[in-house]
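Standup notes, structure subgroup. Blocker cleared on the flavin-adenine dinucleotide input:
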Amino acid sequence: MIKINHRKRDPIQLLQMLPMSKVIKGIYAYKLNPMAHSHQIVIIGGGNAGISVAAKLLRKNKSLDIAIIDPAKYHYYQPAWTLVGSGVFDIRKTQRLEASVIPSGVKWIQEKVKSFSPEQKFISLDNGEQVSYQFLIVAAGIQLNWDEVKGLKETLGKNNVCSNFSFEHAPYTFECIKNLQSGTAIFHNPHTPVKCGGAPHKIMYMAADFFRKKGRLNKINIQYWSGAAKLFAVPVLKKRC
Ligand SMILES: Cc1cc2nc3c(=O)[nH]c(=O)nc-3n(C[C@H](O)[C@H](O)[C@H](O)COP(=O)(O)OP(=O)(O)OC[C@H]3O[C@@H](n4cnc5c(N)ncnc54)[C@H](O)[C@@H]3O)c2cc1C
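Run returned:
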């Protein structure tokens, strides 16, 4: 969770409100943690978005001073998880060391961003350090809230309940598809924004193709349950459905 310090406070007033022990401790902490880094462009998140933006900016101007902040050890190529769930791609190939995908010439700060201070143009890291910037790009991805669906977290990855939306679970999708000889296969798209609106569709088509190749298509009832208002988000396709 990233917090935004949006309230402007007079520092003198703030000091007067605190007990003296905290003031001394605060001054001490400030001396220990001065502005540790300063960069022209700071990008939060070294996923596909963060690294692509950094690479594109550098292609335009090699002399830019860019830092990417991301605590992750690994980078994941998530679009391939559909293919993993369909049994045609190796999950291990979707994981790379984050260090290996940071564009050369970009500084990687391997820390988590804890809070923003937009008016002062700096961000604070989990380790207490601060990073100032001229331009800030936020590309921290979206959070998976499995808990939003009652009981999902407890059953995910077993009991024939699978998801392509995580590295841990995508291989189990193919287990489920492979083992289903007959019955009902439900593909589901939640009402909330997801990383790829087409992903629930794509795995359904790939599964249907697998069932067809194995001669099981007429024994399996394929259903698509969607919380979205329309089947397709792209306007030209929306009109046809
Ligand atoms: C199954 C599936 C299929 C898909 N298929 C397609 C497709 O066919 N075509 C397509 O275009 N897209 C597809 N996508 C979507 C695409 O993969 C994502 O949109 C893309 O990977 C998101 O990249 P991102 O950089 O925004 O986020 P992420 O890759 O999630 O990266 C976010 C990064 O931010 C870091 N971070 C988070 N919080 C902090 C913090 N506080 N401080 C510092 N760093 C932080 C994380 O560690 C992470 O490395 C698919 C996604 C899935 C799951």
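Discussed briefly. Confidence is low (pLDDT under 50) at residues 4-15, 20-32.
Next: hand off to the docking folks.
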